[in-house]
Amino acid sequence: MQVFSLKAEQAFDAKKHVEKILGVVGEGDVTVACWEPGQTSPYHCHPNCTEIYFCFEGGGTMRTETATIAVKPGAFVVHPRAELHEYINGPARTLLFRVRYGDDMSTRTKAWPSNPAWQSRAVDVEYFDS
After folding, report:
1. How far is it, in rounded angstroms, from Cα 115 to Cα 15?
2. Quick check: pTM over 0.90?
3. Is residue 79 a contact partner of residue 64, using CB atoms and an 8 Å limit?
């Protein structure tokens, strides 16, 4: 058994959201994700794992290719393998608890409009072109 306190593990950075892996369990990991107001994730997917977010406090918007939903405290979102998604934080600091499980946790990023310094990787371009 592993026990964590999201409040004790939280860490924020004004430049970008913080994802802190708290533990590895079986074929996955558990993470606290900390967001400052207005921070946005890359538009990305995980080809070989499912990703689940639980909103502990704060909130924002989760966008996929087919839907955009509000994420509020107590809500959780499940992204099946390879589902493109992007999280846009709202006006308050947000704590999300994340679980990923599957064959591997690799990420493929399609775009990151809020990060002008972002450069696509060859492996990402190849993945989305295929």
Report:
1. 10
2. yes
3. yes
